[in-house]
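Predict the structure of DNA ligase (ATP).
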Amino acid sequence: MKDFAELITTIDQSNKTNDKVAALKQYFLEADSADKIWTLALFTHRRPPRKVNSSLLKEWVIQWANIPEWLFQESYQVVGDLAETIALILPFPEPINSIDHPLHHYIEQLIALGPLENEDKEKLLRSIYLELNKQERFVFTKLMTGGWRLGVSQNLVTRAISQAYEIDKTLVAHRLMGNWTPQSTSFSDLILEEGKDDLIARPYPFFLAHPITDEEVKELGSPSEWQAEWKWDGIRGQIVKRKNEVFIWSRGEELITEKFPELVEMAENLPDGTVLDGEILPFQNGEPLPFALLQTRIGRKNVTKAILKSAPVIFKAYDLLEQEGMDIRTESLQERNGKLKKLIMGQHHHALQYSQSESFTSWDELAEIRKKARSLKTEGFMLKKADSPYEVGRKRGNWWKWKVDPLTIDGVLIYAQKGHGRRADLYSDYTLGVWQNKELIPFAKAYSGLTDAEIRKVDAFVKKNTKERFGPVRTVTPQLVFEIAFEGIQESKRHKSGIALRFPRINRWRKDKKMEEANTLQELQELLEKYG
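Done. Here is the predicted structure for DNA ligase (ATP).
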């Protein structure tokens, strides 16, 4: 555990990518084999299920520390992180020459907590904390609560393992994909020997694109070298058909096969050894439906006939990654597209569609075509180099996402709450309202978009202009106006405004506007009618 805690500390204290990769590389070369596979699991979102309720954990820590609940809550508000708060408050002395159990020992103990009665859980947790120093307690609590927010991407882990064991990075990335668990595989089988158990189901690492501005588009060179596809607002996924079995994966490496039975039925007719990359779209009568309908699929354990009828889906395929069991990612996009079109034409299935590209001879012409994006219910264009291979991760150069400008609305700050982490002592989470008659109706929450300097100014305003307090939330004297940007708008029965925004964030602080000049609920409803 000491080595893992030191790794976390090193990563947390560095903002240099090379230093993080070096620390990861050293760890994977020296760590216990069982610790390596669990570390991989933790960094690739395969964490052990939570076995202890956070409220119960807080209650025990308060008892152990013999402090009032209000003091714990005030400490938590200042620190902004539950695990760090617990590590600082625990009254236990630092262990002297304690046994350094490996990481997997503590994870196994966490898993063993599940069936225990609360009294036995408390005893076991207390004994564990007594073995650990302050940093190890922090890391252990993170493991237990699932509250990881580390500056480690899967790409960094892939780089570190690639360098440590001299394995091609793309091969490492592929081996990390799939439905493996630390309990069912070893580090050696997964990384060094490439275990065979889940190769049938395993998808490919997704190729992702960076955003590009209107001005940068004009610097891409000759339009004839590029392909412009509409950027659909759905769930990015891969459909895998191998050995007559079908698997559907999301970009987040979740196996979502059972959520889309109509896509499984479609894919059963695909040639064996086929992997498609594309977008799962709610779709009916020739056009996309609101993205929210997809959430009715993902959020349900059982997809009923009623849901299938109210939220029909298709698969917009825009790439072919495997054909007849052969990995064809190194072929050019143009070659892959030709094979993909031929494949789709041979299927004749309404749930499988090709993602068409637009013809254009100049970037100005494409910019004009892009103006149709919202009417077509797309987010803009994906620009792809015609001769590009299918790469791994988010790369610059061959693929770009050229999105339309977001929708915007001006709202008034009415509630504020402190943030987390480095913003734990600053009011940085905001609720904004729009006018309905003479009342401000809350319509969006936003916690990103302002600079650190602006957040400090808003924080000072909130502290001087608090009207009421409700736990961590403050009601603020309405005055400050912010322009809120968002990607989509839809009707919502859960919100007082009757409207929900997709990806709301602060676009700018409208210091030039008085609060009376903020937008109205009627104007929001007009946007809903136009773009919802």
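The CA atoms of residues 121 and 338 lie 59 Å apart.
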